[in-house]
Model the fold of this input.
Amino acid sequence: MDELIRFTAAAVQLNAGADKAANLEKAESFVRVAATSGARLIVLPEVFLWRGPQGGELAIAEDIPGAATTRLCALAKQLNVYLIAGSILERIDGNRRVYNTSILIEPSGEIRARYRKIHLFDIDLEGSVSIRESDTRLGGDSVVSVSTPLGTICMSVCYDVRFPELYRRSALDGAEIIAVPAAFTAKTGAAHWELLVRARAVENLAYVIAPNQIGAGTAGIASFGHSMIVDPWGQPLARAGEEEGVIVAEIDREYQRQLRRQLPCLSHARLT
Done:
């Protein structure tokens, strides 16, 4: 596949629950909608395959490659798209915790890269949200940036968006597009979601594709929704509301290159 300078990207917003089969079927249907809209890069949200109560992760975790990823690889090949499967809970041999893993699938149907969420969401907001991902999940330790004909893609997941050093490292390695599949909570999302997503775009002069979960699902913790695609100047190109669906926007890499020439802040970085 030749390099693409302009193409359409899509973010899928879902309200996933604890029924893996139903979630996968719904995700596949929205991926088809995105492809019909002309999208060449489609990003699903975090834990799109299963969003159940904490403590159930080990029982539903999968190998990668596994049953779900095999279906998604076939779908990406059929539709001739790049597909980022937001995150799947990945089984770890001999461990009672799991990885929260995002994968990038090529139009050939092959898994090109996998990223294991580095930063685990352990918080206790009095009277609102109490979550300890580290009780059931294990953090990854590698930043992943992938060169593709669509540009170099930085892979990340949800809570990672609060840690700008991850994205700066990727940007200095050439990342042009940042994927932030998320299940951002309603409480923190209302205060910080748009602020953080747009900040990561501005400081790295990068496109950010940030699909979020919506609704409480069976986990009982409400997610914020409001998925976004943001350009390298920090301007939202597309926004979702508070329901499931697909948003699309054009990625213009020549425009991005022009901005990076005019405002070469990445080459001015000193604390790296």
